[in-house]
Amino acid sequence: MEVLIPADRIQRRIDELGRQIQHDYAAQPITIVGVLTGSLIFLADLVRRLDLPLRIALIQASSYRGATTTPGALRIQADLVPDLRGRHVLLLDDILDTGQTLSHLIRHLETLEPISLRIAVLLRKLGRQSIPLEPHYCGFEIPDRFVVGYGLDYNDEYRHLPHIAVLPTPS
Ligand code: 5GP
Ligand code: MG
């Protein structure tokens, strides 16, 4: 598979994001909410760079996609999310594509009354967003290709790759 972003470049970028996040929150306690399952590797690498009072929570959002790339209804599984009232919350996802998933999750998390809610994504696909949404922290902007690795899957495989690769389209 074609490597789009090598492992060492991902790690260097997470160093930078970690410094920026640590600086921005200035020792305030935060809860990082990772979106299952794609954000797991990003979450694990990022939190180990943060010297902040920190809690980790997880949330699941599954979309029912049809044969097209148009996302269907989204189901949020929030049982694992603790009380967020009065917390600074950083919502972490692997990739911002159309923006459907994150916008649903933002609407849900806002009902839990955090003090603040920011978004961090490892990847942002250019030219795909149908919902206007500006992540506060973004690792890399990538072209509109289907990518795997570093948490991102195809049929639940390839998540363990240390780099981001482009899945070949069947010809
Ligand atoms: P959105 O709701 O923004 O359209 O899509 C976000 C979700 O779609 C991501 O959390 C991810 O699960 C999935 N997704 C979008 N693009 C890709 C991609 O290129 N590769 C993989 N593996 N998943 C993707
Ligand atoms: Mg996902």
As a percent range, the share of strand residues is 25-35%
Biggest pleated sheet: 6 strands, mixed
- Ligands in the structure? guanosine-5'-monophosphate, magnesium ion
Secondary-structure element string: EHEHEEEHEEEE
- What count of domains describes the coordinates? 1
Strand adjacency order, main sheet? 4-3-2-5-6-7
Mean pLDDT value: 93
Number of E-type strands: 9
Helix percent reads 10-25%
**Could you please say which CATH topology applies here?**
Rossmann fold
Structural class: alpha/beta
The rough form would be described as: globular
Number of H- or I-type helical stretches: 3
**CATH class categorisation:** Alpha Beta
List segments where confidence is low: pLDDT < 50 over at least 5 consecutive residues.
none
